[in-house]
Amino acid sequence: MTYDKQETKFRLGTRRSPLAMAQAEEARDRLAAAHGIEPAHIEIVAVTASGDRVQDRPLAEIGGKALWTRELDAWLAAGDIDFAVHSAKDVETIRPKEFAIAAVLPREDVRDVLIGAESIHALPQGAVVGTSAPRRAAQLLHARPDCKVVTFRGNVATRLAKLAAGEVDATFLASAGLRRLGETGTGHPLDENEWLPAPGQAAILIECRAGDERTRRFLAAIDHAPSRAAVAAERALLAALGGTCHSPIAVLTRIQGGDILLRGALFSPDGAEKVEGECLFPLGDSEGPARLAADLLARAVPAIAVHFAGSA
Ligand SMILES: NCc1[nH]cc(CCC(=O)O)c1CC(=O)O
To answer: What spacing in Å lies between the alpha carbon of 298 and ligand 1's midpoint?
Structure first.
């Protein structure tokens, strides 16, 4: 052991939503098990993030993914917490240099779940579907141009309540979020080969200060290498594309032995245009995602390319 089991406490920072709390507890329990310490040794410190305060407008309009991490970033930089536990999907591609991704937990089910219909094709003609994710909106309209997309935010429980109240005919949630909240029976999972997930979906990412060797060693014990490789590839693809939370991008990663198969699809926001491609490269080849990005951008029509700064 590289730290004093009895004396040293770690402070874990998280958002306060029920899903974020469930993820924080999972990280804490994995750390306690890996190090043979009491869970109480890791103190959970919860914050209401800016992204949770504004519920009536799409995240892309009010400041993007940074609103999920702003408060925790400040606490981490100031040393008020030792590490922060995030949904990988919610963490900006470009992060402050003083932070490092110290661990990625074993990835959950990457699929989206459709709630309100059995499949995309089973949605009634002209169905009203609630989502604020550009990827879900564009992917839906690509398959079903007759549907109407309306802005839909809030945590998992809020969205389910809005659906139950009849505000929309259907909505999407990540299977991973539902499972982590113990809601396994809700909705219909969509085949991940036909309906691609978001970069980082279903993965939990833990950041600490890059120079904090003690915490880095502590967190390394629960790092899951295949999940880390997949998340790194997806984040690298997004970075090479110059994508933001405005960019309709979907991605699916498979680790096959020593190789990564990375599939990506870019859309125009109205779903009319789509470009898709894949790239197979050895684990550790950091150029693979950039090759796929270049291929996609080379084939993207302007209505797609305009949403990706990497095209410049
Ligand atoms: N943008 C919100 C968000 N961030 C992570 C998840 C779910 C869990 C995950 O994908 O890891 C969700 C909710 C959703 O998309 O249903």
So the answer is: 30
